[in-house]
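Illustration: Helix-turn-helix transcriptional regulator.
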Amino acid sequence: MFTYEPLWNTLKKKGISQYDLIKVHHVSTGTLDSLRKNKSVTMNTLNDLCIAIDCQIQDVVQVIKENE
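Result:
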């Protein structure tokens, strides 16, 4: 399972709002909704986010192991 909790923490640290993601970095509202709901997004989207907000992938997504 994935969580995008690191993304929200990174945005807060960098002073970037969700509005900024949409208007400045051209992240679609659909993508933002998927991120909010921890739904899957493409690696290309994760790459674009990392470039846009100048961070590493671990600053955006975390893998959570499910109980086996």
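Reading the tokens back as a structure: Residues 2-63 form a domain with the 434 Repressor (Amino-terminal Domain) fold (CATH 1.10.260.40).
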